[in-house]
Amino acid sequence: MGRCQAKALRPDPRSAAFRAWSLGAALLVGCACCVSASAAGAQQKKGAPRGSALFAENCATCHGSDGRGGERAPNIATRPDIANLSDARLQSIVANGVRAGGMPAFSFLGRQHVDALVAYLRVLQGLTRTGKTKLPGDPQTGKSIFFRAGSCSGCHTVNGEGGFMGEDLSSFARGRTVDAVEQAIRHPPDRQPYANRLVTAKTASGQSVTGLVRAQDNFVVVIQSLDGAYHSLPRKGLRTLTLSGQSYMPENYGATLNRRQLNDLVSFLLKSAQSPDAPQVISATGRAR
Fold it and tell me: Which residues contact 18 (CB under 8 A, 6 or more apart)?
């Protein structure tokens, strides 16, 4: 949407409608970034609006310039529950709004601009829709690496097998490039302050719990300990809550795995993410797997 068009759509600045529109735009357009579309590069070749500029103008104030959250709105770049939403679902959210969450309908933005925003969001998420991803290695060997003792499956699950402390990676690689999946292995992202780091809570009664924070608010902190149990701890009863200085996920896979092993592990995750609406995956030999 051009600036002239945007101005034409705005209510009278002196009206209550304008104030409501301004607040709704600040809240929603950030969420509108979650709408899916074709690749950003293809759009720009056709003269479509630049998604990065639209994001900076409409979304960054609330969601942060990198989409990882701000004071007014949540992380929409690295949260799996956002990244794994289908394009159709995200389009519906933006077009129809979420009344219960205070998000108005934003269909007035127009499909072209929504597409540009979402294409850029997918870039921030490390997602693409190229249609085909060539496997760099052998997924069967990668499966053995994933499930061997002391490796990924100690924390992560794929297709119902594995641990429970880390994310379910069954569909993690869907739509991601080979490089994006490898970077997530070599340099695990710190999605939120407590998302990937162990904490130790000590209560006034002497109880000590170490694990990952699964939920928290002004009154309660919920920690999942390493044995899988959940502990709901009232904040008023906490003496200390200490955050580990190191990522819970090992950050040295780039050193402990050689190039071939990394390629195989990436291939396993890409292969596991296949589904009817996922990008087709072809092997290094050119044959569909």
Answer: 10, 11, 12
> What CATH architecture applies to the domain 132-190+249-282?
Orthogonal Bundle (1.10)
Low-confidence ranges of the chain (pLDDT < 50): 1-11, 13, 18, 20-48, 130, 276-289
- 93 SS3 class: helix
Q: Is residue 167 within 8 Å of 80, Cβ to Cβ?
A: yes
CA angle 83, 88, 90 (to 5 degrees): 45
SS3 category, 250? coil
Domain 199-243, what fold?
SH3 type barrels. (2.30.30)
Alpha-carbon torsion 63, 68, 72, 74, what sign? Answer: positive
For residue range 139-175, list pLDDT tens digits in order: 999 999 999 977 899 999 998 999 988 888 887 887 6
Please list the residue range(s) of the chain that carry CATH number 2.30.30.100: 199-243
Is pTM beyond 0.70? Reply is no
Strand partners, 242: 200
170 Cβ neighbours under 8 A, 6+ residues apart? 157, 158, 159, 160, 272, 273
Q: How distant, in Å, are the alpha carbons of 142, 262, 275, 283 from that of 270? A: 10, 12, 11, 11
Tens digits of per-residue pLDDT, 80-98? 777 776 667 777 777 777 7
Fold of 3-125: Cytochrome Bc1 Complex; Chain D, domain 2 (1.10.760)
**Closest to 182 measured CA to CA, from 225, 137, 238:** 137
Strand partners, 233: 221
Cα–Cα dist 69/78, whole Å: 10
